[in-house]
Design the sequence.
């Protein structure tokens, strides 16, 4: 069950996405990524995930440097374990992956979503 605080927090996070979240969202929103639907800043249990494709049960998280600190590493492990028990696969990208290698992120997502080479990119040949 989702409580009001989670809904409010989710709304706040959607309105205040990071630059990297916005950059990825512009690629995957409106079924632009091979017609998959994504939700952003979506509550699952007591957690709010950055992006989720419920059809494929894949969660995409974009992490800043604070996720490399010991207490946050432990939190992320616990969080990912919970989400896995709920049937989700959690995929993580660092902010600098989004900033410096968005094409690589796009290719990795194609691999994770098992997009075959014969399926054309919604952005044109080789575009991301």
Sequence:
């Amino acid at each position: 069950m989702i409580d009001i605080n989670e809904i409010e927090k989710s709304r706040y996070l959607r309105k205040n996405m990071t630059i990297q979240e916005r950059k990825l969202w512009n690629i995957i929103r409106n079924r632009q990524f091979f017609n998959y639907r994504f939700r952003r800043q979506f509550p699952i249990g007591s957690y709010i995930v950055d992006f989720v494709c419920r059809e494929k049960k894949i969660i995409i998280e974009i992490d800043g440097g604070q996720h490399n600190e010991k207490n946050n590493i432990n939190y992320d492990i616990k969080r990912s374990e919970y989400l896995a028990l709920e049937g989700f696969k959690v995929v993580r990208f660092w902010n600098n992956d989004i900033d410096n290698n968005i094409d690589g992120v796009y290719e990795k997502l194609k691999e994770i979503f098992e997009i075959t080479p014969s399926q054309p990119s919604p952005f044109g040949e080789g575009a991301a």
About this structure: The chain has one domain: 4-112. The longest helix spans residues 70-85. Residues 90 and 127 are 25 Å apart (CA to CA).
